What does this fold into?
Amino acid sequence: MSKDIAAVYADGWSRIVATMIRLTGDWSLAEECAQEAFATALRVWPESGTPDQPLAWLTTVARRTAIDRVRRAAVEREKLREVAMEPAPWTVDAEIPDDRLELMFTCCHPALNVEAQVALTLRGVAGMSTAEIARAFLVPEKTMGQRIFRAKQRIKQAGIPFRVPPGHLLPERLSAVLHVLYLLFNEGYSGAGELCREAIRIGRTLAGLMPDEPEALGLLALMLVQDARREARTGADGTLLTLDEQDRTRWDRERIDEGATLCERALRHGKAGPFQLQAAIAVCHATASGTDDTDWTQIAGLYEHLRRVAPSPVVDLNRAVAVAMASGPHAGLELVDAIDELDGYHLLHATRADLLRRAGRDDEAVDSWRRALELAPTEAERQLLSHRLAAAQRTGLRTAPPTAPQPAE
Amino acid sequence: MKYLMLVCVDPDFTPGEDDGKPDVDDWAGEMDGKGIRLMGDRTRPSSAATTVRVRNREVLVTDGPFTETKDVIAGFDVLECEDLDQAIEVASKHPMAWAGAIELRPVWPWGDE
It folds into this structure.
């Protein structure tokens, strides 16, 4: 793809698809027309030069393609279909309405399952190909193709509207959109990095389209600050590094500053939702120069607030860590032991192990490291945990009596 | 868009004493008034159901419901809605959404793809 076309594609794809969906009400047709428009550009632009209004040019080609196809289909079936086609082509980019917000809300409609929401968002809003999405989720391309096809069918057949939901539905629907974005980001954070990039890009678009929705700003801030630490998260040998082991000079300061500013702007609305609070916590970490000068009391307070607006045992666990840093391992252990839902979660046991170590209870720590290691889902995490286990066993040996007592016969 | 609203009981769910669920007559009155509810009724329990099959050109009639629908469907309504969001809103105001479950089936008119 030539550079000009690639640049327009990055942002233009979803705008053209969204506009074509609004005009034709047909998702597959909309995508085919957008594809056709870019294919034509690929053929024509190198010779005629990039047009002054590339987006308007592409949209006009997509619309003509749609009109042609609908006409042909109508002739074939000897039945005219009503298609809301506006007669005059657009000439200025600014006049093209931006329908991407509608597209996002439709892709994330609660009547679609989460897998379908994610796949549709990546295809429609981010413009990733089915093959790319399949690779990112480690499923065969055919499977992903069917998933997307079924989701589009469902939108049409179930009557899922293409629009931004009205006020009374907006808060819950927006939170579904944000949830899908964060899911994408997290998927990318532990695997395919391109998903993080796309999630941030969509997040920017969303925050731009809904500048008065503090949670949309909060999510973007959260993703930016977390992504700023991406490079520093792994050591030279690919092992995961914890926050206090990371080389903070490798953090992307610009992204952190951008995230911090966004977070502040969001919090000024006075409606601190879960994403804003998580962003505020991430900013606290990212703006400290080390573990020692991190404001753990404030972080513990933010977690306390977070568990009130979005209660979850994982939040309780994180709060326990912050409390342990602010007030010592015993206070933290007490909170960890009060959580009774996360026995299958490796980080609960890893946290417990670390707090036990700091409390000087090394033997118990070994058991918890072992349990964490058994449960860890990724190779990188298993490596990190086996280092910890080995270290704890060495400390354990030093503190154990020189000759271990023989087991009773 | 037309939706067939299947009003179903949920045998595993016991609602609390006063859970604030709406009144069915109010619901029907509101939806009739808005022109959303085209028709609808309760259905008699499965003990009154009859199942018909034709096999080898012979009409087979059995007493009772087709197994899968046993005791589930308690009524039905036909709605005319703008889109799924409106149908969801209408369904969520029906008392059986609070005590059972409501299935929304888009009607597939003859002649449509």
